[in-house]
Specification:
Elements: H1 2-5, H2 10-17, H3 25-36, E1 40-44, E2 53-57, H4 59-68, H5 80-83, H6 88-108, E3 117-119, E4 123-124, E5 137-138, E6 142-151, E7 157-169, H7 175-190, H8 199-208, E8 222-227, H9 232-248, E9 261-265, H10 266-272, E10 280-281, E11 300-302
Parallel strand pairs: 7-8, 8-9
Antiparallel strand pairs: 1-2, 3-6, 4-5, 6-7, 7-11, 9-10
Helix pairs in contact: 2-3, 6-10, 7-9
Length: 303
Amino acid sequence: MLYRHRLLTAGQLTQLLRPAATSTRYVRRQLEVLHDRGLVDASIRRATRAGELLWYTTTLGCEVVESGGELAPRAYRVTEDAAASPLQEHTLAVNTMGLAFVQHARGLDDECGPLDWDPEVAHRVRDGDSRLGDEAFLVPDAVLRYIHTTSTDDGGQQRMLLTFFCEIDRSTMSIARLAAKLHSYARYAHYIPQPAPGRGRAKAAAGHRREAWRARYPSFPRVLLVLDGASAGQLARRSDDLRALAAADARLQPAAVDLRAGVTTLDQLQRYGPFAPIVTPVLGDAEPTDVLLRPSAAAAAVA
């Protein structure tokens, strides 16, 4: 979990691994054992005066995890400098969001576990030179998977896989930049890779080209923008400003049909869970709803 999620507190680890525990003592003891073996290390949380520790895997710890073959290797590794950087709170907020999904899944008898979200997964959104960076790739703060169970009319149950592209904004990003991210999601929804010269081009010309996302997801993920880092009133204004910019952007209007994007706050997500009417559509009606998070006909059924 430390390898996957980069930085976690003992409290977060306890809530994920030992939800019935009333103390972090056991988890802290195990972290000390791993620390003594050189597998994990800790950095002091900058935003608190109490000296709370943020834990991460060392180079040796990463090698041990990767040698086990249970997780796909990640190119990014947390260094001592990265663990102590100003990005601490953003990383923790991403994991707090994932934890909120996990905790509410337990109460609903759904499935969303400690390893069901991946930070910063790159998705190509245009052909050409990879060195174009943001122009060539879409990188959500996290991709989260959730299996939701609903009752059917015949008394049975239907299990649906929901996938979310999650963006966390701690009130440090301009609204214009946050709105611009929607363009990347809209672009990815329609991006069809161009085949390499040769036989692939002939096949593409024959009508076999498909959107890139179909190779990774059974349906196009919902886009969830999660606001944090300010008062409730300030976050409400940021949400309104974001919606106003999106409504005034003629380039985004064609995406309204295909792009299921909504905005909420981290506090609401923690308090009420992902299936409460807490999400305001970025494009469309201004009333908070739960419709963006409900299973739909496009969601993938799970056996």
